[in-house]
Write a structure and sequence with these properties.
Blueprint: E1 2-5, H1 7-18, H2 25-46, E2 53-58, H3 62-76, E3 80-85, H4 92-100, E4 104-107, H5 110-119, E5 122-126, H6 140-146, E6 153-156, E7 178-182, E8 185-186, H7 194-198, E9 200-204, E10 217-219, H8 222-228, H9 238-241, E11 243-247, H10 255-266, E12 271-276, H11 278-287, E13 292-295, H12 303-307, E14 312-315, H13 323-333, E15 339-341, H14 344-351, E16 362-364, H15 368-375, H16 379-384, H17 386-397, E17 400-403, E18 409-411, E19 417-419, H18 432-445, H19 450-469, H20 483-488, H21 490-495
Parallel strand pairs: 1-8, 2-3, 2-5, 3-4, 5-6, 6-7, 7-9, 10-19, 11-12, 11-14, 12-13, 14-15, 15-16, 16-17
Antiparallel strand pairs: 1-10, 17-18, 18-19
Helix pairs in contact: 2-3, 3-4, 10-11, 10-18, 14-15, 15-17, 18-19
The structure holds ligand NPW and potassium ion.
Length: 497
């Protein structure tokens, strides 16, 4: 499990550790780790450290101090190091170390900074770290923008302009090839848009481990998901493995039904009971003979009873939002089984919040627009502050929230937010969300709690998509995928966790 923290949590841990160490020890550890990554990159790109050109962008805080001390180490190995000071101040010890090692220090001037950034083999972003607040001011903002023209950029601790605690980016921000972070991951390195500014993240151990509190954000890894996934045991049967009831599709949207059933079946459910109007039932029966189907014409006094016993429900994909759909949603949500509410189900819940007031576990899977309707908060505000709003929705609605997006978040009250690290931009294609809800339904029916089902489901969905994009391989050339390809790649995604 990868764990991440807010700036305040990191600061508190650093203070506790620093109190036990001679002054400057932590910065020396950070700078040594940073210099070693920089040297590796220079060797890879320029063939050697000696003679290579390094430009340091230096802010007035300790983030600049790290960069200056690392620059001094590189200068001692023969690199030609120049520090551009963005502010009137710079860490005095770091500045002296760089000058002592033969490096140069220049005051910011735009044309000079541009040349130094373009000509460098490596640019080191030491503008701001966890002390950054709000959008970058000038000339920091211009320097961050100029980094787009650099050959290679290493960000110190976090890319400047990215909020370390949330991943928020308000204005220009450095886009790094590599981020060297100290002591522990910061939330902003895992959550977008920050995460996509960080490039590859290298964690340098500075001894913070024993002083870190419970993490604020975590990311599951393949082995974590492998441990959490229920596997069939010898004396099992389809009922014990889990039966999921899928209420999805309508005569207008038949595909959502087929895809949702695909996700559940390929994720390894014991059995699918599928219920809908006549058309989607016909399509599901044709494509998935494995599913047991029920036609609902909307006149049933007890639709849930007609469908039969299940251990969990998927409610919503393509089911529509009319009166019939509303009544069906009410009936499913009145049961005592866990329910994942997706798509039209989320729209119905936004219109009638009483639907989500239930004691059994509920997972909702909105994108930012759907969450905007649920919370009554503008969509762009949610997109800018995803962590905050996923948490708020979980607390206010009393459900597990899977907020879809470039990085998917899973929030539940009093638990660290889980951020999903698998996936690919190719996933942005119609129907993939229906597959995801089927996967989560399958995991819920197998007995996983909502928090685990949602986060493992997102992981498997993203991993299956990656395999499909690479034609079944872990990496390599990429090609387009359709939603059904994601479902079809699930068994391989699980096999190779
Ligand atoms: N603590 C430790 O033990 C260790 C810490 N370490 C390192 O220290 C870093 C934290 O250092 P830090 O606390 O000095 O803050 P830092 O990130 O340099 O930024 C503060 C400066 O930035 C400025 N500034 C802020 N916002 C701005 C904006 N929007 N636009 C422009 N400027 C802005 C702000 O200016 P001011 O508001 O004061 O005018 C202030 O001067 C941490 O990330 C890690 O790299 C490591 O060495 C390991 C040990
Ligand atoms: K930085």
């Amino acid at each position: 499990m990868r764990t991440a923290y807010t700036s305040d949590q990191i600061r508190a841990a650093e203070a506790a550790l620093m109190a036990r160490l001679p002054e400057g020890t932590l910065m020396a550890r950070a700078a040594a780790g940073l210099a070693s990554v920089c040297a590796g990159m220079l060797t890879a790109s320029a063939g050697k450290v000696y003679g290579s050109r390094v430009t340091l962008l230096i802010g007035s805080g300790d983030n600049g101090g790290d960069a200056l001390y690392a620059g001094a180490r590189l200068a001692r190995r023969g690199a030609r190091v120049v520090a551009v000071l963005a502010g009137s101040r710079a860490h005095p010890g770091g500045r002296a170390a760089l000058l002592g090692a033969g490096g140069r220090v220049v005051a910011y001037e735009e044309a000079l900074a541009r040349d130094l950034i373009i000509e460098a083999d490596l640019v080191v972003d030491g503008l701001v770290g966890i002390g950054g607040a709000g959008a970058l001011r000038e000339p920091y903002a211009t320097l961050a923008r100029l980094c787009a023209d650099a050959h290679r950029v290493v960000a110190v601790d976090v890319p400047s302009g990215v909020d370390a605690s949330s991943g928020r980016v308000d204005g220009p921000a450095v886009r790094a090839h590599v981020t060297v972070t100290f002591g522990a991951y910061k939330n902003g390195l895992l959550i977008d848009p920050g995460a996509s500014h960080a490039g590859r993240v290298e964690l340098v151990d500075i001894g913070l481990g024993p002083y870190l509190p419970d993490p604020d954000v975590v990311a599951l890894t393949g082995p974590d998901v492998a441990d959490l996934l229920p596997r069939p045991i010898e004396e099992t049967d389809k009922y014990r493995r889990g039966v999921v009831g899928i209420v999805a599709g309508s005569d207008r949207f038949t595909g959502a039904a087929v895809l949702c059933v695909a996700g559940a079946l390929r994720a390894g459910v014991g059995m699918v009971r599928f219920a809908s109007t006549a058309e989607p039932v016909r399509y599901v029966r044709t494509r998935w003979p494995e599913a047991v189907t029920t036609v609902l014409d909307g006149t049933e006094p007890d639709p849930v009873g007609k469908i039969g016993r299940v251990q969990a429900w998927v409610l919503g994909p393509g089911m529509g939002t009319d009166e019939r759909a509303h009544a069906l949603a009410r009936a499913v949500l009145a049961t005592d089984e866990p329910v994942i509410v997706d798509a039209d189900g989320v729209t119905l819940a936004a219109r009638d919040p009483s639907l989500l007031r239930r004691s059994a576990p509920t997972v909702i899977t909105p994108h930012a627009g759907e969450l905007s309707r649920l919370l009554g908060v503008p969509r762009d505000r949610i997109e800018a502050r995803k962590l905050e709003h996923a948490r708020r929705a979980a607390a206010e609605l009393g459900v597990t929230v899977l907020l879809k997006g470039m990085t998917t978040l899973v929030a539940e009250e009093d638990r660290p937010v889980r951020v999903n690290t698998t996936g690919t931009p190719w996933l942005a294609t119609g129907g993939t969300g229906d597959v995801l809800s089927g996967i989560i339904g399958a995991l819920l029916s197998a007995g996983l709690p909502g928090y685990e089902a949602a986060s493992c489901g997102a992981y498997l969905h993203g991993r299956a998509a990656l395999l499909a994009v690479h034609g079944g391989a872990e990496a390599g050339a990429e090609g387009p995928i359709a939603a059904l390809d994601v479902a079809e790649a699930l068994p391989e995604a699980i096999r190779t966790l």
